């Protein structure tokens, strides 16, 4: 089911949280709403689910206008950050609740609850109460309950935030598997870029109630639309250098790079270099500085290089090098992969 | 160290509560015995003080069972009314955004702290006007109304501790707001509800002033006013009888406390744990 949100505006009292936002999600697609805390991800999600009334704009599921539909009538399943399981009901009753509301026959409910439990692999836990489950199991129950009505849209609000690191990895692929198997259109809210990149077909990166860029994870990583996007994606993060674009790209007094192809001479700009595009193992023009920090990571090391102008570049260098702290180095930059942003932060 | 600390604590608590325990003990012993005049050591065991249970102690008075029944009806009706209104009003105050919500909340706190006895004249006039003066029904309504602010306040606390998401999840699962309340929210506040039920029952059971002023007739007499009549009417007060009736009056309260201690504690915890 295609989701089409147009010119969406949401206010709480006098504060406008989201203004004039448009988002369309293709049928069967899984999209991430990614952004820092307070940027309006949950607000957007709950507007789509119907819990928040929207103050402006329209929402369509397929060709159907659902803007004014109450949440009960929207074909939407929601997984909440704290799972919101009903504590007094068994797992089976939790999953079956949406079906009981529809007044289905007990036998039918039992069959569909069983099916759903198998799908999320908790068939042996049906008699338990939520308090008797681990975080990951609770998460699965919440997923089953959201999906049991066979909704057209699945909304997930930070579903992995309460899990420990190992479970998070497991549930990441689990949620993606379920989404693929059911072919449901899904929106995932997260502030974790790795989650967004690894689980979703596309990412909508939000900032202050606006969508900054919407694209596939690969494209967004390779071609960030702004300095903000470039800084949000990537771990370890990209390094930014203040530079001057004249005949050359000068960085401080001592370093200069040739202007990347097609860049006009202009005033001050920001140069963004990802750590995997700088280091002794690359080819291209070089930048000189002094090693100021080494962080071993096992397979590779993270090395900070401080330039004479006191700006920093980070490099990923394969382990087994003999670089020492304080050593002066002149390393290469992969010039075809660097990003340039103007003074306002827009991509050049 | 810890066990020693515990013993010290128990000792201190015993010392403080000893006078109460001794008083209760003597109340019981006195009611079934006759001490030597001026002494406190029981001399003879006898049940004459408890005669009110099987004979009429005074032809003008209703039987004790009739009065006990009245008290029971008064206390339970009050408790049920308080609970019925509290669970709905508190839900609205906790969850729904309606006009003048803040005003109602503020009013609730004020009423909770209000010395209700100052209202008694006004209530008297209202009851008289409604034709409910000197009827059990009238006192029940008044007592329930006066207990309501407390009940609503307590229940609101319990509702506030139920996460919003449960409600949103229920709505998203397709249930109406009412069904969400009944099937998903109400079970979470059940501990509070049972505590409130017991509390308002006990409050009704021990109420004295309201029945005394608003239902002085013999038909609507409750145990508290009955005792008052026994001690006040007689030219020669029978303290033994009075003690026995007092004992009889207190027994249900003690039983309720023993049985429901745990649930009563919930009201102070305010949590959702059973
Ligand atoms: N009920 C509300 N009343 C007033 N303001 C609200 C309300 N809900 C959210 N907001 C405000 O709207 C903004 C966006 O909130 P939202 O919950 O959508 O953020 P979010 O992106 O989900 O953040 P997080 O990652 O912390 O969950 C925040 O500034 C928040 O303070
Ligand atoms: Mg949120």
What does this structure look like?
The complex is a heterodimer of chains A (about 350) and B (about 270). Chain A is α+β, with helices and mostly antiparallel strands. Chain A has 2 domains: about 230 residues, Rossmann fold; about 110 residues, Beta Barrel (OB fold (Dihydrolipoamide Acetyltransferase, E2P)). Helices cover about 25% and strands about 35% of the residues of chain A. A 6-stranded mixed β-sheet of chain A has the order 6-7-8-3-9-10, sandwiched between helices. In chain A, helix 2 runs parallel beside helix 4, helix 3 crosses helix 4 and helix 4 packs parallel to helix 5. The longest helix of chain A has 18 residues. Chain A is elongated. The model of chain A has no long low-confidence stretch (mean pLDDT about 90). Chain B is mainly alpha-helical and about 270 residues long. Chain B has a single domain, classed as MetI-like (MetI-like fold). In chain B, about 70% of the residues lie in helices and about 5% in strands. Chain B has 11 helices and 2 strands. Chain B has a two-stranded antiparallel sheet with strand order 1-2. In chain B, a hairpin with a 6-residue loop joins strand 1 and strand 2. In chain B, helix 2 packs parallel to helix 5. The longest helix of chain B is centred in the first third of the chain and has 32 residues. The radius of gyration of chain B is 23 Å and the shape is globular. The C terminus of chain B is likely disordered. At the A-B interface, strand 6 and helix 2 of A face helix 6 and helix 7 of B. The complex binds adenosine-5'-triphosphate and magnesium ion. The site of adenosine-5'-triphosphate has 11 residues of chain A, from helix 1. Adenosine-5'-triphosphate (ATP) binds next to helix 1 of chain A. Chain B: This is Maltose/maltodextrin transport system permease protein MalG. Chain B: Keywords: Cell membrane, Membrane, Sugar transport, Transmembrane, Transmembrane helix, Transport.
């Amino acid at each position: 089911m295609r989701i089409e949100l147009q010119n969406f505006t949401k206010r709480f009292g006098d504060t406008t949280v989201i203004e004039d936002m448009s988002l369309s999600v293709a049928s069967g697609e899984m999209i991430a709403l990614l952004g820092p805390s307070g940027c309006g991800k949950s607000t957007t999600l709950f507007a789509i689910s119907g819990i928040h009334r929207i103050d402006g704009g329209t929402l369509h599921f397929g060709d159907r206008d659902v803007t004014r539909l109450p949440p009960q009538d929207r074909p939407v399943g929601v997984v909440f950050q704290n799972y919101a399981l009903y504590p007094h009901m068994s797992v089976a009753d939790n999953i079956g609740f949406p079906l009981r509301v529809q007044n289905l026959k007990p036998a039918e409910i039992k069959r569909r609850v069983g099916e759903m439990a198998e799908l999320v692999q908790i068939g042996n836990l049906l008699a338990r109460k939520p308090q008797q489950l681990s975080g990951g199991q609770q998460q699965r129950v919440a997923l089953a309950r959201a999906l049991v009505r066979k909704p057209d849209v699945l909304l997930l609000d930070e579903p992995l935030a309460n899990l420990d690191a190992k479970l998070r990895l497991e549930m990441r692929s689990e949620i993606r598997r379920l989404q693929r198997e059911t072919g449901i259109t899904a929106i995932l809210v997260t502030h974790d870029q790795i989650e967004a990149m690894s689980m979703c077909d596309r990412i909508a990166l939000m900032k202050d109630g606006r969508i900054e860029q919407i694209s596939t994870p690969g494209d967004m990583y390779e071609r960030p639309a702004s300095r903000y996007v470039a800084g949000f994606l990537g771990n370890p993060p990209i390094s930014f250098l203040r530079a001057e674009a004249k005949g050359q790209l000068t960085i401080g007094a001592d370093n200069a790079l040739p202007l990347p192809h097609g860049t006009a001479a202009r005033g001050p700009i920001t140069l963004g270099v990802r750590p995997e595009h700088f280091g002794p193992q690359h080819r291209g023009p070089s930048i000189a500085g002094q090693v100021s920090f080494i962080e071993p990571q096992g397979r590779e090391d993270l090395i900070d290089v401080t330039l004479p102008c006191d700006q920093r570049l980070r490099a990923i260098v394969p382990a087994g090098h003999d670089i020492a702290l304080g050593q002066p180095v002149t390393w290469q930059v992969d010039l075809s992969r660097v990003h340039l942003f103007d003074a306002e932060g827009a991509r050049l | 160290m810890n066990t020693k600390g515990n013993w010290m604590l128990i000792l201190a608590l015993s010392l403080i509560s000893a006078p109460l325990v001794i008083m209760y003990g003597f109340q019981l012993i006195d009611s079934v015995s006759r001490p030597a005049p001026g002494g406190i050591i029981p001399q003879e065991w006898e049940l004459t003080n408890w005669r009110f249970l099987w004979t009429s102690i005074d032809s003008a008075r209703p039987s004790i069972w009739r009065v006990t029944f009245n008290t029971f009806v008064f206390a339970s009706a009050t408790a049920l009314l308080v609970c019925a209104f509290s669970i709905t009003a508190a839900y609205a105050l906790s969850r729904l955004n309606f006009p003048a919500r803040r005003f109602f909340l503020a009013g609730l706190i004020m009423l909770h702290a209000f010395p209700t006895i100052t209202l008694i004249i006004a209530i008297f006039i209202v009851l008289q006007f409604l034709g409910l003066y000197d009827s059990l029904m009238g006192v029940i309504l008044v007592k329930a109304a006066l207990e309501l602010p407390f009940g609503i306040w307590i229940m609101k606390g319990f509702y506030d501790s139920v996460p919003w998401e449960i409600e949103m999840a229920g709505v998203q699962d397709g249930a109406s707001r009412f069904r969400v309340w009944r099937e998903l929210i109400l079970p979470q506040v059940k501990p509070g509800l049972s505590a409130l039920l017991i509390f308002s029952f006990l409050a009704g059971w021990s109420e004295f002033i309201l029945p005394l002023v608003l239902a002085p007739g013999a038909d609507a007499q409750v145990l508290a006013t009955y005792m008052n009549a026994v001690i006040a009417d007689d030219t020669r007060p029978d303290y033994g009888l009075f003690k026995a009736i007092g004992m009889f009056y207190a027994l249900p309260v003690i039983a309720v406390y023993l049985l429901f201690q745990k649930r009563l504690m919930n009201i102070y915890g305010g949590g959702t744990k059973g």
